[in-house]
Amino acid sequence: MSALPTFPIGDLPAMWLRDNCPCAECRDPRSGQKLFQITALPTGLRVGSAGAAAGTAEPAVEVVWEPDGHRSVYPVAWLAANRPGRTDHGDLRTEQGKELWTARDIAGRLPAADWADYLDKPGVRARMLESVLRVGFMLLRAVPQREEQVLEVAETFGYVRETNYGKLFDVRVEPDPNNLAFTSVAITPHTDNPYRDPVPTLQLLHCLVNDADGGDSGLVDGFAAAAMLRREDPEAFEVLTRTPVPFVFRDAGTELRADRPLIGTDSLGRVREVRFNNRSISTLRLPAEELEHFYAAYRTFAELLLRPELQLDLRLTPGDCLVFDNTRLLHARTAFAQDGARHLQGCYADLDGLAGTLAVLGRADTLEPLVEMFAGAGTAEYLGEPVTMAQHMLQAGARAEAAGAPPHLVAAALLHDLGHVDGEVVTGLELMAGTDNRHSHTGADLLGRWFGPEVTEPVRLHVAAKRYLCAVEPDYYDRLSEASKYTLKVQGGVMTPEQAAEFAALPGAADAVAVRRWDEEAKDPNADTPPFEHFLPLLAALARG
What is the pLDDT of residues 129-139, one digit of tens each? Predict the structure, then answer.
């Protein structure tokens, strides 16, 4: 074997590395499934030798194992993307890596697309599905206004979850309703089917008619509300995460019950589920003191969920189809007059199907559109700076790489300003003209076609990181270029102490600050930078699929 590629092998756990051997003896070439049990691996397993593998298309490391002499070949890109210690590929259901929002944060940039584009353009579909995972919902417009069309929408990304309400349900005034949803009364923010185990994780609502006076919809980010409760009243948060609540539904032919906390967390304490529905909570049977603590916390959380700044108000129009995460977003509706027609059709589906469809789209999608975008006319000029946009982004990626940053941060540094250059989304001209083009958000949304939140979220937060650094480091503002000082004003200015504290608490804040520093350094017209092709193996390893 020749010299070892630049990747440390000695500090990798031997059993983990061997368990991930990709050879045909260890994995079925067709399914990728393992052909051995962990108990079949020899005791005292250790790396006998390691070096560069010969004859591979991409740089790879060959390991010869002792005591059995087995040979394994690991692509360097795979080792970099899966190294132990990474925490950015955790449970996709938790708050980690998601964008938590209030109404002001999300208004004006709803994750929306026309049905025809969603069907015909894989990039649009991927961006919309990614938005369900990241912000909790997507809005499809101009969906055909016909009965049962909502089932076809669900089948574009998964499977319909049939319940006691059937494959689909009609949200309209019924003469003998078994649920308040089938009346005209106002309904406060809630989770659907909290009495099910497991609860349906996705809900779809397709508007067929909405001529009634009232009947507007509302969405509340339950994860953002839970995070707010954790900051404002940690004791109440703790009570609601450990107290099982009996959710019950009964009618003539159905009896359903699930005992779950209002706020569900994983083993690391991260919010994984909000299950809130005042209509379905049955009688708690706890000691009197525990009941006192629960009801105090329950009331506090309920009041928080009703804060006007948290609710995004929407009026669904005929042809709109709203798809949202029922374990995260709470939905509501205003009362409406019964003399006006209002008819939605809904169904349930599940997040694992949607996430799987997104992964398959990633496998079928190449990085070629990204390559073309990077080389396009939009990268030829970086307004107000002495470098082109392409030079700037390449320098930022190179600086991250030279600093030994993990691959996802190298990618984020390289691609952080892509929202300026894609003519289909937005350009930097608006920003220099005094209008915030929100390029950090549009760029992150665009990159969601290929990459997960470990790449997109540092991009999304890199403008906020500039505002944050100006607030917490007195000399940071003075180090900004004149163009960057100008755009700072357009982008909202220096953060207040309260805003800075909120930013610092975000899961991706540290990564965003790192990208921001490389961003500010990457404006040297004389710097030698590698071409975009240099980064393609790294990007390919990070891309979905």
Answer: 999 999 999 99
φ/ψ (deg, to 5) at 241: -85, -15
- Taking the CB of residue 508, how many other CB atoms lie within 10 A of it? 26
Alpha-carbon distances, residue 56 vs 284, 342, 522, 541 (angstroms): 63, 61, 34, 15
Could you tell me which of 539, 508, 506 has the C-alpha nearest to residue 397?
539
- pLDDT per position as a tens digit, 27-54: 999 989 999 999 999 999 999 999 999 9
Query: CA–CA separation, 124 vs 460, rounded Å?
Result: 18
List phi, psi (to 5°) of 514.
-60, -45
Where does the pLDDT of residue 180 fall: very low under 50, low under 70, confident under 90, or very high at 90 and above? low
pTM exceeds 0.85: no
Cα separation, 133 vs 200, in Å, equals 15
Angle among Cα 287, 293, 295 to the nearest 5 degrees reads 100
C-alpha–C-alpha distance, residues 211 and 317, integer Å: 9
What is the reported pLDDT for 435? 63
Residue 411 in 3-state DSSP?
A: helix
CA distance 244 to 290: 11
Tens digit of each residue's pLDDT (9 = 90 or more) over 441-489: 888 888 888 888 889 989 999 999 999 999 999 899 998 888 888 888 8
For helices 122-134 and 439-447, what crossing angle results, to 10°?
A: 110
Query: What pLDDT does 425 receive?
Result: 45
Q: What secondary structure letter does DSSP report for 545? A: -
Give the list of residues 6+ apart from residue 249 with CB closer than 8 angstroms, or none: 193, 195, 255, 256, 257, 280
Mention every residue, 6+ apart, whose C-beta is less than 8 A from residue 340: 211, 212, 213, 215
For residue 65, give the nearest of 2, 5, 9 by alpha carbon: 9
Evaluated on CA atoms 387, 389, 392, 394, the torsion sign reads negative
